[in-house]
């Protein structure tokens, strides 16, 4: 991933920053167990992998370039998480209204369309 939107107490993005060092896994990924997250990551490159080594399982996620953001939600003290590609960051329209041009927001005119594909590929025995 690239940078992440640091969120306030209401999960609204306030500042685009580098991910904290405790989220890094050998410089190649994020550890959802490192801290509670409810953040958008930008420039994730359309590829993410979730590994469950204790189950010898993996989930590969690929997304078309229209999905510029990756939302990661890891609530503290809970045994689940969510990884979701998104075309724009949370609150992108309000951020754009305040002058931000890096929100991923797509404006469609009447009759226009925006299309993208996300693929989830599970693997076992890894």
How do the strands of the widest beta sheet line up side by side? Answer: 2-1-3-6-7
CATH C-level: Mainly Beta
Termini distance? 23 Å
Structural class estimated from helices and strands: mainly beta
Low-confidence stretches: none
Number of strands: 8
Question: How many distinct helices?
Answer: 1
Strand content: 35-45%
CATH hierarchy: architecture: Distorted Sandwich
Radius of gyration: 15 Å
Order of helices and strands: EEEEEEEHE
Roughly what is the average pLDDT, rounded to an integer? 87
Question: What level of helicity do the residues show?
Answer: under 10%
| Major β-sheet annotation | 5 strands, antiparallel
Describe what you observe in this structure.
By secondary structure, the protein is mainly beta. The protein has a single domain (4-124), classed as Beta-galactosidase, Chain A, domain 5. The chain contains one helix and eight strands; from the N terminus they run E-E-E-E-E-E-E-H-E. A hairpin with a 7-residue loop joins strand 6 and strand 7 (82-86). The protein is globular, with a radius of gyration of 15 Å. 21% of the residues are buried. The model has no long low-confidence stretch (mean pLDDT 87).
